[in-house]
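Task card 7
Instruction: Convert sequence to structure tokens.
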Amino acid sequence: MIANRDRLAASEARDIALDCVAAGIEAGHPRTVVRDTVALEGATLRIADATYDLREYDTLVVLGGGNAAAHVAVALEAILGDRIDSGVVVTDDPAETERVTVRAGDHPIPSERGVDAAGDVLAAADAADGDTLVLAAITGGGSALMPAPAGDLSLADLRTTTDALLASGADIGDINAVRKHLSALKGGRLARRAAPATVASLVLSDVVGNDPSVIASGPVAPDESTFDDALAVLERYEIDAPGSVQARLERGAAGEIAETPGPDDAAFETVSNHIIADGMTTLDAARDAAAERGYETLVLSSRVRGEARDAAATHVAIAEEVLATGRPVAPPAVVLSGGETTVTVRGDGTGGPNQEFATSAALHLADGSEIAVAAVDTDGSDGATDAAGRAIRDVYKRQTCGSSVSSRPSTARSGSSRPTQLQ
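Output:
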């Protein structure tokens, strides 16, 4: 689960932090959450609290994309077997499937192969009809993995705009408001292409609040953001977007290009979005892992936002209070949180928010402190970096490394099966 655990687990504090990380990742893995939320009972498919009578459909297909989409497809095949007729998912973390085609894309910066793969997803949606049940595997990372430039936009236009937004410190909601209005697939447009098929999405949430319209830029969710909103995001973060991007957004704001489909669009009459895992899924599992080892636990929040360095300073202060006064929880303790922190990239930095969190925390730790920190993105990739995050302890703070009275094993991203590598 954690590829370099032996090197990191050099103390009890580190060991408990890594236990929490591993438990959180496992709890959010698609094989776990699909097994827990999806069941086939005769001809009835149950997804969470919803049921689908498979006798009412001639065709069952699996479509979607995201870091964990292939593993969702594998888990669905294990349950449904040959009831799945076909499908295509896009991911950067492939898995072996029998009936669903797995196409490769790239994350966090979109690529040409992602464009081609997104085209296959759209083609499969176009082939659906009123007798089709579409199971949509939607997970974090889908925005970048399924680029489908709208109109006369190019992939270079999307990449330049995405690069600038990621480096600006914009939150995921703002970033995706722009992405939706530059795409032929996002912002509910995939659902519109699949209509009048019945669409049941299985969503692994990687965003604060679990809004399906934000996760993977909401390909099968109604969108209430507008072209005006997208323009406002570019202005707020001082994004110098390509002329073609600016022109499209301005034309849309002027009513010359159709808006993304909203809640009243007929396409959503047969669409249901099911959140099957989120940040609290991983936090609860991490808490249970710590409690089993006799630690007091405190889950602060699954909704931490803002600059990673600022969040780190706050978490260190809380951990110091725990050690000094036994409040709000008595030591030995594990303090947990999750959310969607951001990094405003300066210079040549890569901007992984979890590594930024851990490194910033190290700089705030007093010499000789018994506090250690683990900050991890449970999909195995921290921002645009190859590492999942970082584990630190104060004695390593000038070099970076470590582990946890204050443990942050989740940023509300859904898990994948790739080995998690901590720096």
